[in-house]
Amino acid sequence: MDCLGRCVVGSAVGGLFAAASLSAMEGCINFVRADQVFLRCDVTGVARTIWEITLDEEGGKAWIFKPAFRSRTEYPATFTKEIVRFGKTLPHTRSYLSNVLDRSTGAFTSDISGLGAPAVTARCEIHDNSSPAP
Known about the structure:
Strand content: 35-45%
Shape: globular
């Protein structure tokens, strides 16, 4: 086999190896993303709006994306068979923002303790991810 033949065969084998490697890596990336659940929540209230919630049970995290405000907030989350609970202490008020999702009905409640404001409620459904991953 001459130099040209070795180069062509070598390039073809190298190309197949690169394609196989990229396919394997893409499978891992998609597998990680498949562990996340994406919800679209119809929030009730004066200014009815949509929130998008991403849940990562394995990672113990949740994110709320509020398209109207273009804001995304990450929370530590705990998961049980019945509910998902996530929240955090707010820095300025030291009040606790609590979010609870009923896994069987999709009912969602967001409440800030100590402020006296009414809780925000929503009905959530699973949907395809429409916004960038957190």
